[in-house]
Design goal:
alpha/beta, 5-stranded antiparallel beta sheet, Rossmann fold, 6-stranded mixed beta sheet, 10 helices
Amino acid sequence: MTEGPLLAVEDLHVDFATPKGLVEAVRGVSFSLGREKLGIVGESGSGKSVTGRAILRLVRPPGRVRADRLEFDGIDLLSASERVMRDIRGERISMVMQDPKFSLNPVITVGRQIAEAYRIHGKVSRRETKRKALEMLKAVRIRDPERVYHAYPHEVSGGMGQRIMIAMMLIPDPDILIADEPTSALDVTVQLQVLAILDDLVTQRGLGLIFISHDLSLVASFCDRVLIMYAGRVMEICNAKELAQARHPYTRGLLNCLPQVDAGGRVELPVLDRDPAWLEHGL
């Protein structure tokens, strides 16, 4: 890798032509990513997931992506050929989707799917592929990896399915992992286990992680930096440890809407007041 950030995004725009007019999903987003955990948070529809997909050029027509700069390791992702992008996707930049039930093929065994993610990026023997797949299942803390290797997706739990997806995306040893709400469908205990796995893997492998979520408390405790989005724009970027002291009224509003367990009595949560000026003026 070259010196500097792993990923540089400047003035990213993503819009969709619809019968009712142009929908601007992402409007002027800029950020950089090093070997760190960057959280992207915001309400549903704020443009978080579209930003992640735009990086991998997974936005299909009628969607349109443009940017002043969208660069990974010296490669212009906007002008790169589809062949170059196929080499980058999965092998160098991986993306974990939100729900494994819709990401895993229900009629193919877990082991075969993980093996395919490894074989597609290099010529390796079946024996080596299986060894690597079992190694990755162990890395994401799956007990009895041999049994899970031969299981079908419907035979595993949601938490295990998400671990399998993480193993599949990390087996090519990428430089960047984009995790799109990887814990939203999990209970709290399993959620913490998956986060611990991601944290260990990011630290051990020196990855850059983009963690997309709507959970501010989770991102504040897990990530290094946080990017707050509203209506396709970046409202604020701050250190995760300083999120509670964020100054932008939108971020303050989101934080105030979080229920407090130790508040005592019946406390009515405030409603977030949105300023129309936020639509025009981001960071």
